[in-house]
Amino acid sequence: MCHPARHEQADEGSVSLTEDAKVTPWEVSGNLGDTDYSKIADRFGARIIDTAMKERIANYTGDLHPFLRYDVFFAHRDLDMILDAYSRGDGFYLYTGRGPSGKMHLGHLLPFMFTKWLQEKFNVDLIIQITDDEKFLFRDLNSGDLAKYTNDNILDILSLGFSPEKTHIMVDTLNSGLLYNNAIKVARHINVSLAKSVFGFDDSDNVGKYFFTSIQAVPSFILSEILGRTIRCLIPYAIDQDPHFKVARDVMPKIGYEKPSSIISKFIPSLKGSGKMSSSDTTTGIYLDDDRKTVRKKLMKYAFSGGRDTAEEQRKYGANPDIDFSFNVFRLLENDPSVVSRIYEEYRTGQLLSGEMKAMTADRISNLLEELSVNREKVKDSIGDYMFSPDRFR
After folding, report:
1. Residue 227 shares a structural domain with residue 324
2. Are residues 77 and 223 in the same domain?
3. Is residue 79 within 8 Å of residue 263, measured between CB atoms?
């Protein structure tokens, strides 16, 4: 049953989270629990993806991605309208993005894996916005660094095997004309007071920061603009990006477009179990260029464990898989729920030790990274086939 639409207010206000937790579009810190995510979703006006919604998705896809099965993607806005449009034959397209501020790690990559699954299951176009302009405005990065990170990040993303016919990479600085001509339509409806309220800006922030959310909104309606007809957009993103798209949803009807829909994820936790994986702290994440030895070492040394202090205690009392980093990553990389259930029980009852759980997950991660490394080399000479152009839709 569809829930009635909620009135969306632009002012986020405050959300009472766990004492050390903080979530903004530019900073995520502390340990976020399920209760915190529910609070954020409720305050932002998003709806939890319940069993009925999962069943409806599975009716179209045939199965559920582990990210849906285990509630990594846990909330949505108007996902029902996307499925309605698809069932009518009207179709939709996907839009997601990446800010190229450094090397990519596993936490960056896994949501793209989910997006690829959506693209394949629904056979739809995907726009991937590379927000190099955002990182120039918000980070102390020069144009040379940004160009390198942009190219490297694109290769990392494409190594997942996205369809060149249906995947469109939109680098902001390379598509500035198209973006600007449409962003000004959004910008005229976002005043300074709103930007300060939603994003926490003050008078010391550069004017580019105020304008950026208008740029980020453009891919959510650009196909309707290009094709001259309404085509709905579904945006997978992490919860910290929600303020950008709440503002976009408020503006879209004012400029003649449908509100974009969204499917919203929790963060992939850091190795240490709190916050999210960081590009600046090599001890919190698994990087895509980490070799097998490094991956194993990181998990053995840093990965937060739900196991006991000694092997004897674990065999006697078992582990807590629910808080264990290695188990939680393993289940996201395993498509067979019966395998996940078996490993869960073996770990919970002490048949499987923490070191064995870490080693199993390290091997699973390394197998993935080695496959992606091979794919990355294959796609190096064909990046141009994926680049965004309006002519590709006409």
Report:
1. no
2. yes
3. yes
**Pick from 76, 93, 110, 92: nearest CA to 6:** 76
Please indicate, yes or no, if residue 6 is contained in any of the structural domains: no
Pair 239, 113 in one domain: yes
348 CB-near residues (< 8 Å, 6+ apart): 318, 319, 320, 321
Shared domain check, 296 and 257: no
Convert the pLDDT of each residue in 160-203 to its tens digit.
Answer: 999 999 999 999 999 999 999 999 999 999 999 999 999 999 99
Q: What are the tens digits of pLDDT across the range 297-340?
A: 999 999 999 999 999 999 999 999 999 999 999 999 999 999 99
Whether residue 124 contacts residue 91, with contact meaning beta carbons closer than 8 Å, is answered with yes
CB-CB contact of 276 with 325 (8 Å): no
Give the number of other Cβ atoms within 10 Å of residue 283's Cβ. Answer: 11
Cβ atoms of residues 136 and 143 within 8 Å: yes
**Pairing, β 73-77 against β 92-98:** unpaired
* Distance, CA of 344 to CA of 185 (rounded, Å): 51
Number of structural domains the chain divides into: 2
Residue 303 and residue 261 share a domain = no
Whole-number average pLDDT of the chain? 91
Domain boundary (240, 272, 304) is at 272
Cα Rg, the chain, nearest whole Å: 21
**Cα–Cα nearest to 327, from 314, 338, 341, 317:** 341
Contacts of 96 (CB under 8 A, 6+ apart): 111, 112, 115, 126, 127, 128, 129, 235, 236, 237
> Closest Cα to residue 197, out of 237, 250, 235?
250
Longest dimension (CA), the chain: 67
Q: 252 lies in a domain?
A: yes
Which CATH number is 171's domain given?
Answer: 3.40.50.620
CA distances from 345 to 65, 169, 334, 351, 353 (A): 21, 42, 15, 8, 12
User: Which two tokens mark 133?
Assistant: 């302009």
The whole domain housing 302 covers 292-379
Stated pTM of the model: 0.90
- Domain presence at residue 243: yes
**CATH number for 296:** 1.10.240.10
